[in-house]
Specification:
single chain, 440 residues, alpha/beta, Fumarate Reductase Iron-sulfur Protein, Chain B, domain 2, 4 domains, globular
Length: 440
């Protein structure tokens, strides 16, 4: 093998994964950007070829030919599901983006967008109080009605694309924070059942879920209590670090992972419950993220083994089916980081189908990305818009009244797209429907 350059050191430990790709092209038919652009370099196979070129010193990490195509990737990981060789493309992508971020910081003067991104990822999301302040401002701005007025009047269309995207996402956002004032470990117990020992779980509330989608967190707690769980909610938990890892801020993500591992170890639980697909995928990869840390490698691996999506866990323990009938037409959009990142496919659908009265309608291309992809919809607004429009078109064709999905980014992307298209639908999490059905 050609000796690697200093520039390619971040890809060194990923060499075996790079070589595993046999260039069969099966990833083409599931890659959103390849299907839209038809460019080999905008496919997983093409991007892996570019990564190998950097690793073998045939291409520099700051080459426009490399940056353009890596930046265009949504990171949905649908290619991992399709790949017969088991290539972990998501790990390769994060390694490449980490090296890009490092190179940009060391060798180039950052533009305003880069400075803002670094500030938000390093100085806002790792600190819960700052996250609550930012999202509190977002809720206040929504209540003023200004974003909705700007969108409806067309004023937003005169703004830069990236700012347009942010305002359009805010219009249909919902929820208020219900974060309590408890410190340490906050416990909730199900009513005692004779001879039945409650299952002890810890709840990862998430920064976005707890501030913008508190009702989903409340529904999660209700469903766990109905199913005989004792819930521990560690109050010193912080953001999972997914946005940082996806943006190349690997060291910041590692610091956040260590903090969460320290926090959740104190709970001594059988499972760590998460209801946001992107966060869950990240938590399940703490073992890989900290594999080279001798102090945390084993602890991270044990932590990741305990992480369960709420739908995955409920099905695993044999959940109580819905009780009250909900007579609505419902479809389901699979979040990429639940379906492809965690390989959790059927549990959300099993939960939906367990509820009496629901008319379930399959969604065409449910497995395809909606264009949210973390902050991709802000960084690549045009491609995000195209993917969003496809998703809304397919949702409209189902005639559904409710679209169910299990990730906050997907939730906002679908709600925003429906609003802009004049489609009157409700977006919900699977556990919300279940909790509603439990409320007799």
């Amino acid at each position: 093998m050609v000796a690697m350059s200093a520039i390619a050191q971040a890809l060194e430990r990923e060499t075996d994964k790079l070589l595993a790709c046999v260039h069969c092209g099966l990833c083409h038919q599931v890659c959103p950007t390849y299907l839209k652009l038809g460019n080999e370099n905008d496919s997983p196979r093409g991007r892996i070829y570019l990564m190998r070129a950097v690793a073998e010193d045939r291409l520099t990490v700051d080459s426009p030919a490399f940056l353009r195509h890596i930046d265009m990737c949504v990171g949905c990981r649908a290619c991992e599901t399709a790949c017969p060789s088991g290539v972990l493309y998501g790990h390769l992508l994060e390694a490449a983006r980490a090296e890009i971020a490092k190179n940009r910081e060391e060798k180039s003067k950052p533009n305003l967008q880069e400075l803002i991104k670094r500030f938000v990822l390093r100085r806002i999301f790792p600190f819960p109080s700052r996250v609550r302040f930012i999202f509190g401002f977002a809720r206040w701005l929504k209540r003023t009605g200004l974003p909705e007025m700007a969108v409806k009047s067309g004023l937003v269309d005169s703004l830069p694309l990236k700012l347009q995207g942010a305002l359009k996402l805010l219009v249909p956002s919902e929820g208020l924070s219900v974060r309590n004032g408890h410190r340490g470990l906050w416990r909730q117990r199900a009513p005692a059942s004779a001879g039945v020992k409650p299952r002890k779980v810890a709840f990862f509330t998430g920064c976005v879920m707890e501030t913008l989608f508190a009702r989903i967190n409340q529904a999660t707690r209700e469903a766990l209590l109905v199913n005989g769980c004792e819930i521990i909610t560690p109050q010193s938990q912080i953001c999972c670090g997914a946005l940082q890892a996806h943006a190349g801020e690997r060291e910041t993500a590692r610091e956040m992972a260590r903090k969460n591992i320290d926090t959740f170890e104190k709970a001594e639980c059988e499972a760590i419950i998460i209801n946001a697909a992107g966060c869950g995928a990240m938590l399940k990869e703490y073992g890989e993220l900290l594999a080279d840390d001798p102090q945390y490698a084993h602890r991270a691996e044990q932590f990741s083994k305990k992480v369960k999506d709420i739908t995955e866990y409920l099905v695993q323990i044999g959940f109580r089916p819905g009780q009250r009938a909900i007579k609505r037409r419902v479809t389901y959009d699979a979040p990429c980081h639940l379906l492809h990142g965690q390989r959790v496919a059927q549990p959300p659908i099993q939960i939906i189908r367990s509820i009496p009265g629901i008319q379930f309608v399959p969604l065409k291309d449910s497995e395809m990305c909606c264009g949210s992809a973390g902050i991709y919809n802000l960084l690549q607004p045009e491609m995000s818009r195209r993917l969003q429009e496809d998703k809304i078109k397919n949702i409209r064709a189902t005639g559904a009244e409710i679209v169910v999905t299990g990730n906050p980014g997907c939730h906002m992307q679908i709600a925003s797209g429906a609003f802009l298209a004049g489609l009157n639908i409700q977006v919900m999490h699977p556990v919300e429907l279940l909790a509603e059905s439990y409320r007799l």
